[in-house]
Design a protein that fits this description.
19% of the residues lie in helices and 26% in strands. The chain has one domain: Purple Acid Phosphatase, chain A, domain 2 (4-Layer Sandwich). By secondary structure, the protein is α/β, with parallel strands linked by helices. It starts with a strand and ends with a strand.
Length: 209
Amino acid sequence: MCVLVLGDAHASDPENRETLLEIYARVDPDAVLQVGDLEYYDPPAPTWFAAGNNEDFDVVDLLRAGQQRENLRLLASTAAEVAGRRVAGLSGNYAPTQFDRPREELEGDRRRHFVRDDVEQAAELEEVDVLLTHEAPKGLLSYGYDPGCEHVNTLLEDLSPDLCLVGHHHTHHEAEIQGTRVVSLAPAWKRYYTLETETLALEEQDVEW
């Protein structure tokens, strides 16, 4: 079984969308995992994603409410069986001013954030093998400061996944954090990955067309 793994797609941009669809065509995956800023909601293969901070939030809200779309499933503090692995997702990015608000009070672009209830709901999931997040945990990246979010570290501690896949930062970097292999993914217009489900090893392929 072929599992494709994709970083940020930003596929509202026509060139990025063309690249995204070319990846699907070339890999012909059985399943796809994607870590947010997808911005394209009719994928040609079964795709599970954690929403990012750049999305059509009307679409994301419908998916949160349980709307079924062919080949697309949102992981928003929920989990699913994908290719024999249990995959969970925390959708959204962190804003300290919004974190303690009820989700139903978030309006407009503020819907892009996760809130405390989202983190607490995700922390109750069981037997998670792979965690998808848009935000990075602390200890993964540095720009002269650590851009990570401690609430993602909390999930790593609570869930103990074998692998955590991270978007948002458009750069490939790996670290072991709290016993979990954490990988920040390059964006889909630069690189894509395939996941070996038995070992959870990632194989990288640069986009060269």
